[in-house]
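the two lines:
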Amino acid sequence: MFYTYKPVFLAVLYCMSALLYYFINKQLILTDIMAGPLIGSAVVFAVIAAVNFALALLISVVFRYCYFAWCKLFKIKPKRILLKAFWGAFTVLCYISAAVIFLKMTQY
Amino acid sequence: MKILKKKNKPDKNFVISAIITICFIAGLAGVYYLRNLGYSKDVILQKANNYFINERYFMAAKYYDKSYDLGASGAEFFRNYGIVLSKLGNYSSAEKYFQHSLEADGSNSETYYCLGDAFYQKAVNSNNKDDFLQAARYLEKAISLAPDVEKSYLLIGLCYRSCAMQENARAWYRRALLSGNFSQSGFYNLIGHTFREEERYLEAASYYKRAMESDYSFVAAYCNTGDMYVKLNDNASALTYYNKAIAVNPDFIVSYIKIGSIYFDQKLYNEAISWYLKALSVNPDSDKANYMLGLSYKEIGRINDAVEYLKKAAYCGSDDAIYELRNIGIELR
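prediction for all of em together
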């Protein structure tokens, strides 16, 4: 599984959120749009995590049903994959989100 | 008993994940670096200036910030950036860039004015007396460099009035009058306001009259004089000046409302109603006129008419009318 230690991945994601906050703040030059780097980073982290959590959940459920249909079709014994599918989708989506936000915020 | 020793093997998943993450971050850093190489400081600055001229301050701030990263500088650059940040409400950052502008050119009155304005706006939000005084100091400097700029006198007067230093405000208004470059009636009117704020109504009235004498068409000065006589409980004189205001400008609705209010306070509701109706003939959508007319009808017992005008006042934006309708038992949907 990608990032066996989930807290490590979440810590990496938080660090990436802090970097994204820096670039977002440069684009949103307004007072009090996000109060302070810690809270700002936490807001970015929460948004990325929440959105990708929902998407990953949806993807993993769809994937699980497709997988079970596949196993039934080919008469294979299905394994328990929901958690792995969810975590894999979540991590990949987080990376994609971070990349998209970064590329958008550094575009002039 | 054999003790089995297990070799500690590195977690493959963790190692792969770490490598992917490092490559990912390095990739993004590479993209950022290559992109930055492609940005021209002059092009970005030109975009920023275009947005500034078109008053698109949000976009202007974004491009000024990028220009600053790319090494843009200069008094005008810092001043424009500061103005943009002021417009967006980011006064602390605006002050910082105005200071940079002063470091580049310490004799620009416009920069001092902008700095004073930023401190004033900040002070208005925080109600901090020190910021008002700091604003006044910068505005004094602006005036010393450019004594013929009216807005500096107006703003410095506002700064002192905001921290209850009306005498200082008057001093600056008088200096503006002595310079002879500006509207005499306007500054007499402002001096009148300072006395009004100190509740020195007689002196206020005398300056409002001077404003009238300087400009006979200055209708607000007539109304202000009338207001002072109301405060001095001389309704007859107040009515005289309000009627003069109407003679000068029959389309100035405030005069009609003020006359109506004098009759309303004296409980002469029928006279008040006639004046409020005249006010509505000038501007049917006046929330104040509709509200007062509604109240007058309510006082003489014509509740249906009262409700009609109070509803109209509420739709025109009068919160008092909504409250009054609730008292009557009517909720607006």
